[in-house]
Specification:
The complex is a heterodimer.
Chain A lengths: L4 E3 L2 E4 L5 E6 L6 E8 L3 E9 L2 E5 L6 E5 L5 E5 L8 E8 L10 E2 L3 E5 L1
Parallel strand pairs in A: 2-11
Antiparallel strand pairs in A: 1-3, 3-8, 4-5, 4-9, 5-6, 7-8, 9-10, 9-11
Chain B lengths: L2 E4 L3 E5 L4 E3 L1 E4 L4 E8 L6 E6 L5 E3 L5 E5 L4 E6 L8 E9 L6 E3 L3 E6 L1
């Protein structure tokens, strides 16, 4: 079965712009979680969506938002980009969402560079 | 707040050496525990997981981990590493705090010398 697909793979944006990243989970997985990965901070939890509802949210400013569609595909949006938003954004899908014991399947990530 | 600590940020070993990577978490309730691995140029993948039963769990590629509840630890081990084990390893904990957020440790970079 197809893995987790994230698009685009690479993005270069200018400070102040906004960006939308997309994630298609594994077929049958209803939960999508987003993480920001940076060399200094590791993986930081952004939010989790399950059946189109945001179930969990990390400690990121309101500039970071997301949504999930009825087919479980998810998007995350970052508005008013800052240099510090440069990172690898990872999408992870799972069967039952946070708390399930099966673990995540990760996508390859979107590498965002803000200049 | 829930947290995960990985003791070593960088580890260098020679092939055939034994490996133990430490992981401690802070949460007093029921947890699910995971180790993920990220090989160079590849995406994160699940190495092994614990949610109940035998505290010694075995994963792919000869890795195992032991859950010691009294020590809040979930250390990763491998008796004899190979050059191909060079990767970054992340410990993760999933606990019922604020709705079962999965929290990751900062990661340990392992370099195995051939």
């Amino acid at each position: 079965k197809a893995g987790v697909t994230q698009t685009p793979r690479y993005l270069i944006k200018t400070r102040g712009q906004q960006v939308t990243l997309s994630c298609s989970p594994i077929s049958g997985h209803r939960s999508v979680s987003w993480y920001q990965q940076t060399p200094g901070q590791g993986l930081q939890f952004l939010f989790e969506y399950f059946s189109e509802t945001q179930r969990n949210k990390g400690n990121f400013p309101g500039r970071f938002s997301g949504r999930q569609f009825s087919n479980s595909r998810s998007e995350m949006n970052v508005s008013t980009l800052e240099l510090g938003d440069s990172a690898l954004y990872l999408c992870a899908s799972s069967l039952g969402g946070q708390g399930d014991a099966y673990g995540y399947t990760f996508g390859s990530g979107t590498r965002l560079t803000v200049v | 707040a829930q947290s995960v600590s990985q003791h070593n940020h960088h580890v260098i070993l020679s092939e055939a050496a034994s490996l133990e990577l430490g992981c401690n978490y802070s949460y007093g309730g029921t947890v699910n525990l995971f180790w993920y691995v990220q090989y160079p140029g590849q995406h994160l993948q699940l190495l092994l997981k614990y949610f109940s039963g035998d505290p010694l769990v075995k994963g792919i590629k000869g890795f195992e981990a032991e859950f010691i509840k009294s020590k809040f630890s979930f250390n990763l081990r491998k008796p004899s590493v190979q050059w191909s084990d060079t990767a970054e390893y992340f410990c993760a904990v999933n606990a019922r705090t604020g709705g079962f957020k999965t929290i990751f440790g900062a990661g340990t970079r392992l370099f195995v010398k051939a």
